[in-house]
Amino acid sequence: MVYDGLDMEHSFNMERIIKIIDDMNERNEGLIPILQRLQDELGYLPINILKAISEKMNLPYQQVFGVTTFYSQFRLEPQGENLIQLCDGTACHIKGSKKIIKTIKDKLKIEKGETTEDMKFTFQVVYCIGSCGLSPTGMINKKVIPRLTPGKISTILEELS
Amino acid sequence: MSSEVYEKEVLCCEGTGCVAGGSENIYFSFLDEIKSKKLNKRFRISITGCHGLCEMGPIVVIQPEGILYCHTSVEDVPEIIEKTLIKSDLVDHLLYKHPITSEIIPEYKEIPFYKYQKRILLRNCGVINPEDIEEYIRREGYLALKKALLEMTPEQIINEIKNSGLRGRGGAGFPTGLKWEFTKKAKGEPKYIVSNADEGDPGAFMDRSLIEGDPHALLEGMLIAGHAIGAKEGYIYCRAEYPLAIHRLKIAIRQAKDLGLIGENIFGSDFCFNIKIKQGAGAFVCGEETALLASIEGKRGEPKPRPPFPATSGLWGKPTNINNVKSYSYVPQIIINGADWFSSIGTERSKGTMVFALTGKILSTGLVEVPIGISIRELVFDIGGGVLPGKNFKAVQIGGPLGGCLPTEKLDLPIDYEPITEAGAIMGSGGMIVVDEETCMVEFAKYFLQFASDESCGQCVPCRLGGERMLEILTRITNGKGKLEDLKKLEKLSRVMNQGSLCALGQLTPNPVLSTLRYFKDEYIAHIVDKRCPAGECEALITYHIDEKKCTGCTRCFKKCPQNAISGEKKKPHKIDKRLCIKCGVCKDICKFDAVYVM
């Protein structure tokens, strides 16, 4: 259940989060590193956390929200169990990533950037993970899978569901 | 223990590409086997950064012979130890075999891919362990910094860089020495040194490989720049999609600090310098210098109008020198070997070497470093090996998503800033994508436009709206709904974006469209007038078919089709229902009889 951006079923230790913000703020680490650290901790950035950051760093909330939504790395919603990141960088694109993206969309019935209803899969299209020698490629749960084909990704998705 | 003591060394490539292929396990396997066989006093096992020939990974190099083993796996480790280390013999099936001539070439220096390169920037990549500062030091590491601090004045350093003719390698090609001079002369304290490691061009991995393979070159270059300009703090802005590069940088900084090469009173001089890493957060526009600086300041990555340039007003309004990773990394070599040495390489206007990432439909995908001025033909065919067998070269895209596509007629062009720009592309930071006859140039242009349009920061109207309008037109054309007047509209929109956008992202977004219109207009006409995609790529204009003569009725495609669009009995030719077919390509991919074709 999600309430006001705060996942009530996976409640986190708010005290600990505030401490992280305070410590990093004291060291003048800056807004973006703080957002990155908290996303690493929580898997995403609930709205309440953004509000807490705004308060602690003495920044207008819309500024914090504006920065968070500008950068594609930041997620405002929880991620699925499996993160599928398909590379659509130029080299992968030339070698056929489009077909693989289509296969994923059709199999999971979601668009890029979305998560399946059962929270099993989050699908993202990324632009170049720097493994162009293995194109078309992608990362499944941060592990690079070389030389993908529509058939190969089909099989992998079946195995993971 | 120094490497002279060992009989042989095994160097396992641990650039991101080879790591993805499993090279870490290969390295650990070597360590285990050597240890269990009690051979660790005779043979040294180490890791290196990216070798460059990513197509052939995971790569293992045996020194001192310089033997290259390709496509290695954990299963090969015992044989390599037994045959090559102990018996000084070769493991034939792992040797490099030229894809066209079938020539077997054991020594990597003789492989055409490496033979014609001039590795200055990449001199340590694939040679040293990037996680060991001692290996960097043993190869003239930090000698340049020592010379710069103890034997040269800041003015002398800047003159040396100016005289070398080094042009910024981030894409714009601005003379680096001149930039340093502007920042030095600018009023304001404190000054900053910033390194742009936000290599956002898809298909480019030069900076990544350099940082992963030789991080100290960057650190040393930044330190020298700091001394020359009068800065005490440096930032490396590295994209978050490069976790291994960031990891190696952190190790390098820590090791340099431990040896007093970063920090207070370096080499006993008055010079103090500190380096911090800032991670990007997934925004291509942050490769633009003013957007990058905004990002370091914790803001949205929105570019600012220039002037003022960062040299006079950069980070927090202070004079800031911002250069690409490669630009800084050349500096130590220039200081040690001299400006004349560097300026003897390259062309009249552009000195030194350039690192290219060769990818796409090319035989030898990987990273190469060549003198500026060699022809595109030499790079693509002599070094890159040409296109894949059975295919024909069609074009090469140079400069990333804001660059352009050059056709066969331009193959003899020298790869240099001005000639490439005149031809309609840009040098960019070194990405080179080769395409063949199966690539639709209209779709290709649309792909780049989609990317640039997505990445637009949204501030200025020409870029924000211009990109979208151009994308709409290209989408209609690739869907078979284009009109001839669309081509005039594309040209007009391109002019507006080029002249009216705030930063280079908006200004150059139309480049792929303009260059494909210039050289491949016939493809646009085919899409618009004939409703046909000559390359067979645009989904709306192609259909999938099964050749009844080749189909054996094995039912594999029938089982895998996500739409159940294929019907047929076992052992009888199958058929695709075009009304249900979504053209995903699974059937073509899975067919073992080459019976599925596209028209």
CA radius of gyration of chain A is 18 Å
Class per helix and strand makeup of chain A: alpha+beta
Supply the CATH architecture of the largest domain in chain A.
3-Layer(aba) Sandwich
What is the 3D shape of chain A? elongated
Give the overall pLDDT of chain B as a whole number.
93
Low-confidence stretches of chain B: none
Straight-line N-to-C gap of chain B: 63 Å
Stretches of chain A where pLDDT is under 50 for at least 5 consecutive residues are 1-9
Number of helices of chain B: 24
Identify the CATH homologous superfamily of the largest domain in chain A: Glutaredoxin
Can you name the CATH architecture of the largest domain in chain B?
3-Layer(aba) Sandwich
**Cα radius of gyration of chain B in angstroms:** 26 Å
Output the strand order for the largest sheet of chain A: 4-3-5-6
Strand runs of chain B, count:
19
Q: Name the beta content range of chain B.
A: 5-15%
Give short descriptive properties of this protein.
heterodimer, A: 161 residues, alpha+beta, Glutaredoxin, 2 domains, elongated, B: 599 residues, alpha/beta, Rossmann fold, Ubiquitin-like (UB roll), 5-stranded mixed beta sheet, 4-stranded mixed beta sheet, 39% helix, 15% strand, globular
